[in-house]
Amino acid sequence: QKEVEQNSGPLSVPEGAIASLNCTYSDQGSQSFFWYRQYSGKSPELIMFIYSNGDKEDGRFTAQLNKASQYVSLLIRDSQPSDSATYLCAVDTGGFKTIFGAGTRLFVKA
Amino acid sequence: SQTIHQWPATLVQPVGSPLSLECTVEGTSNPNLYWYRQAAGRGLQLLFYSVGIGQISSEVPQNLSASRPQDRQFILSSKKLLLSDSGFYLCAWSLGEAMNTEAFFGQGTRLTVV
Known about the structure:
The structure holds 2 protein chains of 2 kinds. By secondary structure, chain A is mainly β.
């Protein structure tokens, strides 16, 4: 059973701080990794994807991937109240299937 | 540009009643199509995916079924709903099997079985 694990949270950070979200996966053959943001009652939307070891930056967001440790993370710098949402880690395990974690709820306090 | 339509947005159905949720994609050809379910406070569970007309792969054995009668149409059905079928159902599409295959989601259907 291929799995993607996330801490359910909630993770609470003050406005302007760095929020760090973590994810581990079980399938060593996984090649593509995604972070989706989901506001309450809404559908997920893609924030970032990463497929190479190391860091990938896009504005306030940085995705980090360590395939040896089967670990992927998302850093949100200068967190804003509008960043409050559930963040879903997703792993492309091949064969047209993407497995999602249960998500981490993030609260950014103004 | 590509768009995905999913309806209805909300649905309340009695136990034992049938179900039909429809999803259509515009602006692309031969997309991969997916049905996910999200229970309250839980992650997305992949139910079905399809890589072409009439080709359906089931991930979770249950009383649900899916069909793809046209290239950009994906239907989720049940003959008799159970209480445990309640949840947020999401249709999604993607292209190809290459890396960086982003999935685009519909607005979702919140199903409550009573």
